[in-house]
Design a protein that fits this description.
By secondary structure, the protein is of the alpha/beta class. It contains 13 helices and 11 strands. The chain has helices at 36-39, 41-59, 80-93, 106-114, 155-170, 181-190, 200-203, 209-213, 215-225, 230-250, 256-259, 277-292, 309-319, and strands at 4-9, 13-19, 25-32, 69-74, 101-105, 119-124, 128-133, 139-143, 265-270, 298-304, 332-339. The strands form 2 sheets. A 6-stranded mixed sheet has the order 8-7-6-9-10-11, sandwiched between helices. Strand 4 (69-74), helix 3 and strand 5 (101-105) form a beta-alpha-beta unit. Helix 5 crosses helix 10. The longest helix is centred in the C-terminal third of the chain and has 21 residues, at 230-250. The radius of gyration is 21 Å and the shape is globular. The chain starts with a strand and ends with a strand.
Length: 340
């Protein structure tokens, strides 16, 4: 019996699944980040091979039995030339991994997990990224350039904006849109400092993007949920606006049939920031409505409730020209649906 592997590789962690020809999961594994721009092709290959071996062991598949296909949707996997080189490296280092290998961007796996005939994915985790895939396979993107050039609406962006409001307010350079007292207090506590000078280590010598982005959860839970703090609520409203702009940017590239479906444009929402939909929703929908009325009939936002590596496995099987049966409707739940 043939088995099909799929890997969803993020900038902080990765997951793998092995399915059979009926779409049944027979093995899973997990591993660290697999972004080629962060760790290089050789280390990516090493980490992926370990996940493949671990998942084969769980599935009871001999480690020297090749998978029929392995689809890898990886953070940093947007450039075909780089992907080709990575596949070459993997094939040379680990020839028993799989009969067929394909690498695509991490956004492709999310779409394939939930959308049968194309759709859109809007990632808002540590960073942000938006990708559109039409039914004919054509793809277009907006964002995903990293924290130096954007990541608007992601956790890092929200955290940085909160800290910037405090710094500018206290410098008397620019008044914060709302009282920053609570945000300042939470900032000092989270970063374990007593003043802005103490923040310099976290901003420079000991800077960690993921740790900085972690402040977003504090803003959401302590600021929005527990205190209904005006500045925290304002930050998530701003996030809603810029996240909506990603979709607006890609709608002109979408097939007309996709925009006029009965359930509207389907957008897969990925990342921890979407847990705060309650505080994003109003500004997000207002922004969409003001730009897309008459262009999109309705929109359906869905969240994946399973392993998005399933989509990677589907992509891998298609690349190998092997038909498999996977019920995509089991992989997501509707977050929000509305006419525009």
């Amino acid at each position: 019996m043939p088995f099909f592997g799929g890997i969803e590789g993020g900038g902080s962690k990765s997951s793998m699944i092995i399915i059979d020809e009926n779409g049944k999961c027979v093995g899973e594994s997990s591993g660290p980040d697999t972004n080629v721009w962060q760790i290089g092709a050789t280390e990516v290959s090493n980490r992926i091979n370990k996940m493949v071996i671990d998942a084969k062991n769980v599935a009871g598949i001999p480690t020297d039995q090749k998978l029929a296909s392995l689809g890898m949707c990886l953070s940093g996997g947007e450039q075909p030339a780089t992907n080709k080189e990575m596949i070459k490296t993997m094939s040379e280092l680990y020839p028993l991994m799989s009969e067929s290998l394909i690498i695509k961007s991490d956004t492709a796996g999310s779409i394939a997990t939930a959308c049968e005939k194309g759709g859109m994915v809007l990632i808002s985790g540590t960073g942000s990224n938006c990708s559109l895939e039409n039914e004919d396979g054509s793809t277009f993107g907006c964002g995903g350039w990293g924290h130096m050039m954007g990541d608007e609406g992601g956790a890092y962006w929200i955290s940085h904006r909160a800290v910037k409001y405090v710094f500018d307010h206290d410098d008397n350079m620019d008044s914060a849109p709302c009282d920053p007292t609570l945000v300042r207090k939470m900032m000092y506590k989270y970063f374990k400092v007593s003043d802005r000078q103490g923040m310099l280590n976290s901003l420079y010598s000991d800077f960690s993007k993921s740790n900085f982005a972690g402040f977003c959860k504090v803003l959401a839970v302590e600021g929005c949920v527990k205190k209904s703090d005006a500045l925290c609520l304002h930050l998530f409203k701003e996030a809603g606006i810029v996240l909506a702009k990603h979709i607006i940017a890609l709608v002109p590239k979408a097939d007309k049939a996709m925009l006029q479906r009965a359930d509207g444009l389907q957008v897969v929402c990925v990342g921890s920031v979407w847990k705060n939909w309650k505080y994003i929703k109003e500004a997000f929908m207002e922004t969409l409505s003001s730009h897309l009325q008459g262009k999109v009939s309705s929109i359906t936002l869905v969240e994946l409730n399973g392993n998005s590596a399933i989509g990677s496995a589907v992509i891998g099987a298609k690349h190998a020209n092997i038909p498999i049966s996977v019920d995509l409707s089991k992989n997501y739940r509707v977050l929000y649906q509305s006419t525009i």
